[in-house]
Structure formats: structure tokens, C-alpha cells
Design a protein that fits this description.
The protein has two domains: 140 residues, Tumour Suppressor Smad4; 124 residues, Tumour Suppressor Smad4. 9% of the residues lie in helices and 31% in strands. It contains three helices and 23 strands. The protein has a 13-stranded antiparallel β-sheet, with no helix packed on it. The protein has a five-stranded mixed β-sheet with strand order 7-6-8-9-21, with no helix packed on it. Strands 11-19-18-16-17 form a five-stranded mixed β-sheet, with no helix packed on it.
Length: 353
């Protein structure tokens, strides 16, 4: 395997990831809009859905990269056991309320607040199931199907696309919010329809295999390990600690970056030529995000520039976003985006909680 060094980085020249051409439509300059390169992102998510059949399945075939974006569900959330619903009814008045505020959107009313309790949306739910789940999505423009039923009754909150000439990829449930009765908290997860649901990173976040990160108009996929050749022929120790980063941007890079924590422990990603990973993207900050290895803990990603001298720390302008393939706890003031809409979460304590 041939490797070249650049900016303290080794690049593996045996990348197996292949991408379709970029969708070079006009890019929205709104820093919160989830609009750039939608086709590219949808291709990543769709490819993963085709390659995986069960939740959290790991693909170990090096010739078929698993992006960790499997969105199939092994749990049927359409049929929550009646006993669980009864438990939710008994505690609903004691549980925190989740308020979802629309802070930026191309189609929804900015400032609109959606109230969710342990049973689901407290008012105006299209699904009206009140089973602890709240689904956001869109099933089509026609109000009724052939049997006269509201075709959007499979979602609680309807999120209509801006363009009436929408494609089928946006039809369905976009993401789910559910109340976890065991831990008394709200969880959110992307459901693989459309262009993904992303959480804004505001604190150090440990990287896991196949995490997808959105920065500006670009995306990076993080994987761990090296192939059998490197381990056997080069004798690389702790191969599972090797970080591989694949960049998808307007000018796609075909080779992944390869980082060994024995050689480098801090990686800068951004537009500046001093960065270890330079991405030609006008929406990126000079140093957009930092990836750092912590001994015995693993690799972590931070938004903006992180330096030993904390006075030099700077957040990015447009944020660093993590794709929500896993159920993730919703915390107060958490910001997430999905299909050209940006939301802010507020946890409201009830007086008797």
C-alpha cells in the first residue's frame, strides 16, 4: 500500500468509497440551512440503508464501506404495548415538558413552539396516537388517500418541503422523538428519510466508528482501524486507534486521511492552509473543528479551534453537526436541523416533578 505524508497526515491510496457526482445547485448562504449537496448526502444514507438489514449492524467488508447510517428499526413503534402507554399516562403530569422551537425554516413559521410531553404532542397531532412517540415528516400533498384517510396521519407534525416539485426521498417520517420511561428523558433519532437529522455539537463529542459529521457544505465520515496488510506487514500497534477520515465536499477527495495517535494527537479541519485537513468550502471557518486524541479515552471532536492556550479557542461560524443515527438524549438548549429546518429544544420542569 502506498502512503504519502502531508501536513503530518498519511493518506491511504486504496479508498473503496465511491460517490456520485455532486449536485451543484445554488447553495443557500444561510448558515443553518440544511440545503447544500442534498443529493450527495441522500446517496450516503440510502447506500447504507441498502447495505444493512438490522439496527446497529457492523459491516466488516472493506470493499463495501459502512457509513454507520443504518436507519431500519427492529422495534415497532407503531404498536407500543398498552401497558407501556398506561404507565406513561400515570406519570405524564410529573414529567418534564419538551418544547421544540422553530428558529429557522424555509417553510415553517419561525418562532412556532411545539409542545411534547411523555405521551407525545400535546395538541394538533395528526397521528393522535399518544404512545410516547412524536414523528416529524411528510407523506404528500393530497389530504386524503384512496380510502378517504388523511395520508399524513402517520406523522404527528407535518414538515412540508419548500419546493412543490419534491422528490419521493422526502416522503415519510424524518425523525422521531420519544420519551424514555426508564431514564425519564426525551430521545431523538433520524429515520433515514430525506437528508438527515443533525445535532449541533457544542461540547466535546467522542467519535464512534462511521460517524457522519456535517461542516458547511461538506461532510466527513470517520472510521477506525487499518486493513490486514498494514497490521501484518507494517506491524502497526493498536490498529483500532487509527482514525480514517473521508471528506465529501464540492471538490471531493478520493483518498481518506489516515491518523495514528502515536504520531499526531490533534487535528485541525478547515479552510486555512495550516490545517491538517484542508477543505475548500466557503462556508467553513479557517479552523472549523478540532479532532483530538485523549489517552485511554479515544478520539473526540470539538467545534472550532481548540488550543492549549484557551484564550486562542474560537467556535466556528456555521457550526459542526453530528448525524443522529443513534438515539440521542435531548438536552436543554440543544439545536438540531432536519430537511431545511432548524429547531431549538427547551426542557420545561413541571412544578410537581
Amino acid at each position: 500500500m502506498k502512503a504519502t505524508a502531508q501536513n503530518g497526515v498519511q493518506e491511504i491510496n486504496t479508498a473503496k468509497i465511491k460517490m456520485n457526482g455532486l449536485d451543484k445547485k445554488k447553495i443557500s448562504m444561510d448558515p443553518y440551512m440544511d440545503s447544500p449537496h442534498h443529493n450527495q448526502l441522500h446517496n450516503i444514507i440510502s447506500k447504507n440503508n441498502q447495505n444493512n438489514n438490522t439496527n446497529d449492524q457492523t459491516n466488516t467488508n472493506n470493499n463495501n464501506v459502512n457509513y454507520g447510517l443504518n436507519t431500519s428499526n427492529t422495534v415497532d413503534y407503531n404498536n407500543v404495548p398498552p401497558a407501556t402507554i398506561e404507565k406513561l399516562k400515570k406519570i405524564v403530569d410529573k414529567c418534564d415538558i419538551l418544547e421544540i422551537e422553530i428558529i429557522n425554516s424555509l417553510t415553517l413559521q419561525r418562532g412556532l413552539k411545539i409542545e411534547i410531553n411523555a405521551l407525545g404532542m400535546t395538541s394538533n397531532s395528526e397521528r393522535k396516537a399518544y404512545d410516547g412517540n412524536t414523528f416529524f415528516g411528510f407523506l404528500g400533498d393530497n389530504e386524503n388517500d384512496d380510502e378517504g384517510l388523511n395520508i399524513n396521519n402517520e406523522v404527528d407534525f407535518v414538515v412540508k418541503p419548500k419546493d412543490n416539485n419534491y422528490e419521493n426521498r422526502v416522503l415519510g417520517r424524518h425523525f422521531r422523538i420519544r420519551f424514555d420511561i426508564n431514564h425519564m428523558e426525551y430521545l431523538i433519532k433520524d429515520l433515514g428519510c430525506g437528508y438527515g437529522t443533525f445535532k449541533k455539537i457544542t461540547e466535546e463529542t467522542k467519535l464512534k466508528d462511521s460517524y457522519l459529521i456535517n461542516i458547511g457544505n461538506s461532510y466527513i465520515v470517520c472510521t477506525f482501524g487499518v486493513d490486514e496488510y498494514d497490521v501484518n506487514e507494517k506491524g502497526i500497534a493498536d490498529a483500532d486507534k487509527i482514525l480514517n477520515i473521508k471528506v465529501f465536499s464540492e471538490i471531493p477527495k478520493t483518498e481518506p486521511y489516515f491518523f495514528n495517535p502515536q504520531q499526531i494527537k490533534r487535528i485541525y479541519v478547515g479552510r486555512d492552509i495550516s490545517c491538517n485537513i484542508i477543505v475548500d468550502d466557503t462556508l467553513l471557518s479557517r479552523v472549523h473543528c478540532t479532532i483530538e486524541y485523549k489517552e485511554n479515552k479515544g478520539w473526540f471532536i470539538f467545534d472550532g479551534k481548540i488550543d492549549d492556550d484557551s484564550s486562542q479557542n474560537r467556535p466556528s461560524t456555521n457550526g459542526t453537526w453530528l448525524y443522529l443515527i443513534e438515539e440521542t438524549q435531548i438536552k436543554d438548549k440543544m439545536i438540531f436541523k432536519s430537511n431545511q429546518n432548524v429547531y431549538e429544544c427547551h426542557i420545561i420542569k413541571q412544578n410537581n416533578s
